[in-house]
Amino acid sequence: MTRLILLTPSHLPAIGAIDAKESETTLAAMMAKPAFAGLGLEVDDHLMGFIYGWVIDDQGEVIQITVAEDHRQQGFGRRLLAGFIERFDLRSCWLDVKSSNIPALHLYRQFGFVEDGARKGYYQSTDPTATAETAILMQWKR
Ligand SMILES: CC(C)(COP(=O)(O)OP(=O)(O)OC[C@H]1O[C@@H](n2cnc3c(N)ncnc32)[C@H](O)[C@@H]1OP(=O)(O)O)[C@@H](O)C(=O)NCCC(=O)NCCS
Questions:
Q1: pTM of the model
Q2: DSSP assignment of 48-95, as one string?
Q3: Residue 17: CA atoms inside 13 Å, Cβ hemisphere, count?
């Protein structure tokens, strides 16, 4: 059975197991703020995806959405995005995405997000030889 649940600090270890780049400390500090909004997607009571960001009134911003690698391309990303908008009653939503992230760009465009600008060199790598990547800004409106 799959279901969407509200993210709480109790989910931090499972989030780290899905994506080791997620810092438990940073995410715990975000969760403590009133504007934090996050959902998890459970399959048979195991967390297999998550989405989180900020919500103020009816405006949202997605900071991260991730589906466990072996559960991708089964509609879970779309379900998390739809859940974020419905559960938090959003009329508009913003996000940014690396211009090279084809799966995420597909998901957002297919959902109805439209491009609303770009920020060159926005994503800096810790590798000094790597080129900084462009961020595509996208917005969705009801
Ligand atoms: C982006 C991500 C969340 C998508 O999750 P997902 O569960 O695979 O997405 P869905 O199955 O709901 O797919 C939604 C749409 O995107 C398309 N899509 C998903 N992965 C794709 C891929 N690798 N290549 C092309 N299209 C892809 C699907 O085909 C679908 O479109 P369709 O209905 O027209 O077929 C997932 O790839 C992921 O976790 N990536 C790593 C983290 C990340 O980059 N997050 C985004 C940060 S901005």
A1: 0.95
A2: EEEEEEEEETTEEEEEEEEE-GGG-SSSHHHHHHHHHHHHTT-SEEEE
A3: 10
By most ligand atoms within 8 Å of CB, the mutation choice from 107, 136, 138, 139 for ligand 1 is 107
pLDDT in single tens digits along all 142 residues of the chain? 999 999 999 999 999 999 999 999 999 999 999 999 999 999 999 999 999 999 999 999 999 999 999 999 999 999 999 999 999 999 999 999 999 999 999 999 999 999 999 999 888 887 878 888 999 999 999 9
- Does the CB atom of residue 78 touch ligand 1 within 6 A? yes
26 C-alpha to ligand 1 centroid (Å): 25
**What letter would DSSP give residue 131?**
P
Rounded-to-integer distance, Cα 26 and Cα 90, Å: 25
Q: For the chain, which domains are there?
A: 1-90 (3.40.630.30), 94-142 (no CATH)
- Taking the centre of ligand 1 as the mean of its atom positions, its distance from the CA of residue 110, in whole angstroms, is 10
